[in-house]
Amino acid sequence: MGGGCAPAHESVRDEAKVMPRGVRWIKDRAIGIDPDKREVTLGSGVTVSYDFLVVCPGIQLDWDAIPGLTDTLGNSGVSSNYRFDLAPRTWEFLKDFRGGTAVFTHPPGAIKCPGAPQKIAYLAAHWWQQQGVLDDIHVVLVLPTATMFSVPEFSRVLEQVVDRYGIDVRFRHDFVEIDPQAREAIFVNRNNGGSERVAVAYDVLHAVPPQSAPDWIKKSPLVTDESGGYVAVDKHTLQHVRWPDVFALGDAGNTPNSKTGAAIRKQAPVVVKNLLAAMKGRDPSQKYDGYASCPLTTARNKMLLAEFDYTLKPRPSFPLINLQKERRDMWYLKRWGLPFLYWNLMLRGRA
Question: Is residue 295 part of a domain?
Fold first, then answer.
């Protein structure tokens, strides 16, 4: 959507159309959990009791953690694909851009789809290359990490990608503020153990906010001192470390994997089998190995499918083809195959 490669309407459905049959759908939001009483408190004040609980509320976007960002979004060249209504706005800013500085940020800490901040930079750079204006644009990609990617095999490929587009990559920089009047993004440079504040002028800016577990999760008993505000679970069984009748999957758990839809796809069957075992009074035996996948769109017709696990070693799903390079067939998987998989198989528990 943000790169102009897909329409917005393809990425949304009515909740009623994807609700599983045979469940009681409570149209309210959770705001608290009391694991001793086995109760979930809803926004309406109603409490719902449970025998077993699966916690999967996702994580929140902390827009206000970046001073100046909330009021700037959608205006003066600043946008973000992390908000549904702003993704088309991103494309509006990028498609007609013909010269100046384009800045793409990535916050520190865990985020939804950690490859997404890079994907939009590559989609934009390829578009500008096709329009014959890339040489007139200073593309700046600002990362909090020391490398392009946590898995060396994929990091090397991405190094080639940024070289091809001439992208100026700033490593170990944390996005901390935006000055809309000066049109500057402010970063903290952590290289060489420093904490220098650095201002980068922009004409267009794709901003990604810091992210964290929902505030009500942070305040719940399900969090421990070591879990960083996330639900504390065994990283393999996904069972809570204190309450055996509670499980968590998805982004709100403190499992040290990349927070991707692919990870949830592998976690869900583990939770189901271990939940069924717990219901029968048995210890959980199924184990999640940290599998995650980042389908990195490196061009408007190529993709690098980065699959890996807790060991940060490649974990390919297609062993007969070389996935440690950009591929056009993987682009088709990203554009058409994965959406079909999500809507028709993942949400129905068939994949």
Answer: no
Instruction: Quote the crossing angle between the two packed helices 116-130 and 152-165, to the nearest 10°.
Output: 30
Looking at residue 134, the DSSP 8-state letter turns out to be G
Instruction: Tell me which residue has tokens 């800016």.
Output: 205
Stretch 37-60: mean pLDDT, rounded? 98
Looking up residue 194, the CATH number of its domain turns out to be 3.50.50.60
Task: Assess contact for 284 and 277: CB atoms under 8 A.
Answer: yes
Tell whether 11 is covered by a domain. no
pLDDT tens by residue, 242-268: 999 999 999 999 999 999 999 999 999
Position 169 scores a pLDDT of 98
Of the residues 142, 158, 252, 294, only one is catalytic, namely 294
Q: Please say if the pLDDT value at position 58 is more than 90.
A: yes
> Is residue 243 classed exposed, middle or buried when 0-12, 13-18 and 19+ CB atoms within 10 A define those classes?
middle
Element at 139 (helix H, strand E): strand 137-142
pLDDT score recorded for residue 349: 85
Name, in order, each residue with C-beta under 8 angstroms of 242's C-beta and a sequence gap of 6 or more.
Answer: 35, 224, 232
If one counts the domains in the chain, the total is: 1
Rounded distance, CA 322 to CA 333, Å? 15
Q: Kindly report the number of other CB atoms within 10 A of residue 133's CB atom.
A: 14
The answer to whether residue 148 sits within a structural domain is yes
- Burial bucket for residue 93 (CB in 10 Å: 0-12, 13-18, 19+): buried
Average pLDDT over residues 192-205: 96
56 noted as active-site residue: no
Is 112 inside a domain boundary? yes
C-alpha–C-alpha distance, residues 309 and 289, integer Å: 6
pLDDT tens per residue across span 310-323: 999 999 999 889 99
DSSP state, residue 86:
T
Contact 314, 154 (CB under 8 A): yes
**Range(s) of the domain holding residue 141:** 61-211
Angle of the 116-130 helix axis to the 87-95 helix axis, nearest 10 = 30
Q: CA-to-CA distance for 209 and 65, rounded, in angstroms?
A: 7
Q: Which of 1, 69, 113, 162 is catalytic?
A: 113
